[in-house]
């Protein structure tokens, strides 16, 4: 996992999330606070069994300690973005690896891959070094699964399905069709609790695709373009485009 070296704060200038992680928007301008780090440590321990050396919790704890020592934050302070939108650690199992994604307020602050034992077979040998588009969609369900499906999400899911299957024909009952139906339903739904969420569509995405393939840089660009065209704010942090891009980067790192 790669994190930027955080700088030492100057007087009255606490270390912010944007100084430590590659994040944007409101979160980037927020100071890292002790309770934020405690929440990430708890999430890492709950999901992974222990706090990860060099992980997001360690980086956050270091920044929060410096901020507290400088008298810029209190020991029990919590950032409203982390408190309101949550701190999460997800652990997605794939053949031959586990993919760990750490997020604050819906933005990914760390992602890394750990090898796991895999049974030797021809099928597993083909896939053990490649994260597929379907698996990237499943990661989206874990990262921002509570987000109501919008047109930008549906467009990204359709682009991902087309690239995974190699067919421009939208499959009846497939992911793209379900996402578009969800957009139409959500548009007329007044109660946010009743809206169809991304997790409702993308959980188990690999099994819902008639075909799948390893995610590439070209796939990531195509999905990001589709999502951005339908969202004035660009792509969603931790969303479909971000997950496919992360999968493509990881695949390139293992020379898929």
UniProtKB/TrEMBL annotation:
- Spell out the InterPro entries in the cross-references: LEA_SMP, LEA_SMP_dom
Keyword Repeat present in the record's keywords: the answer is yes
User: Ranges for the SMP domain?
Assistant: 15-69, 131-187, 196-253
Give the compositionally biased regions (Basic and acidic residues).
1-16, 211-220
Does the record's keyword annotation contain Repeat? yes
Q: Name one Pfam family in it.
A: SMP
The protein's superkingdom reads: Eukaryota
Record's keyword terms, sorted? Repeat
Disordered, as annotated region = 1-22, 211-237
Q: Which family does it belong to?
A: Belongs to the LEA type SMP family.
Name of this protein: Late embryogenesis abundant protein
Which species is this record about?
Arachis hypogaea (Peanut)
Organismal lineage:
Eukaryota, Viridiplantae, Streptophyta, Embryophyta, Tracheophyta
């Amino acid at each position: 996992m790669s994190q930027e070296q955080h700088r030492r704060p100057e007087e009255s200038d606490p270390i912010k999330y944007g100084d430590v992680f590659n994040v944007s928007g409101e979160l980037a301008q927020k100071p890292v606070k002790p309770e934020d780090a405690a929440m990430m440590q708890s999430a890492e321990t709950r999901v992974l069994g222990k706090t990860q050396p060099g992980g997001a919790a360690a980086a956050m704890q270091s920044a929060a300690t410096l901020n507290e020592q400088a008298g810029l934050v209190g020991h029990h302070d919590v950032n409203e973005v982390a408190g309101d939108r949550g701190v999460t650690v997800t652990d997605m199992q794939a053949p031959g690896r586990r993919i760990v994604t750490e997020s604050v307020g819906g933005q990914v602050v760390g992602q890394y891959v750990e090898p796991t034992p895999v049974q030797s077979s021809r099928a597993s040998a083909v896939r053990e070094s490649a994260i597929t588009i379907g698996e990237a969609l499943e990661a989206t369900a874990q990262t921002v699964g509570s987000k109501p499906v919008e047109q930008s999400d549906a467009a990204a899911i359709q682009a991902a399905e087309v690239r995974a299957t190699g067919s421009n024909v939208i499959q009846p009952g497939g992911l793209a069709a379900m996402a578009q139906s969800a957009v139409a339903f959500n548009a007329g739904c007044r109660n946010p609790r009743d809206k169809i969420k991304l997790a409702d569509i993308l959980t188990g995405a690999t099994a819902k695709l008639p075909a799948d393939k390893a995610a590439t840089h070209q796939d990531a660009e195509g999905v990001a373009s589709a999502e951005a065209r339908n969202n004035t704010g660009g792509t969603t942090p931790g969303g479909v485009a971000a997950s496919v891009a992360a999968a493509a980067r990881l695949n390139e790192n293992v020379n898929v």
